[in-house]
Write a structure and sequence with these properties.
With 138 residues, the protein is an alpha+beta fold. The chain has one domain. Helix content is 16%, strand content 37%. Strands 1-2-3-4-5-6-7-8 form an eight-stranded antiparallel β-barrel. It is globular and about 35 Å long. About 10% of the residues have low confidence.
Length: 138
Amino acid sequence: MKKLLFIVFILSGLTSAYGQKAPEMLKGSFSDDYGIRYVINDSVWTQLPKTKYHVIRWNREGQYLIAKNDGANPGEGGLYTRIDYMTFENMSPYLWGFCLSAYNARDDKAAEAVVIADRKNPRKGCNGFPFSRMKKSE
């Protein structure tokens, strides 16, 4: 019984740093400032119509997620992605944005090691490009 409690304690610590739940503001249906639509939940980030990222872990403190690209994606199927996100102020109706920091990494560790997002400069902080701004779809 002590072993089981210890394992539960250790796993609860891991899920606080790497939660398996998406932040509430990221859940739902969205469109970006390019007109692309998305559906996001705890386990899948879908860029409509055909691109899916299967979430391996959310790092809520670091504001990013690590995902495995769906094998049926139009490009980079079976590889790994890091998606960084941030909240916006005074950009209504855009409340948050994201940056594909890595989209073709060989494994989840390599994707997580890619750190290009600069949240201090959302207009050029995604490897010289702006974060994609997201608003709730109606």
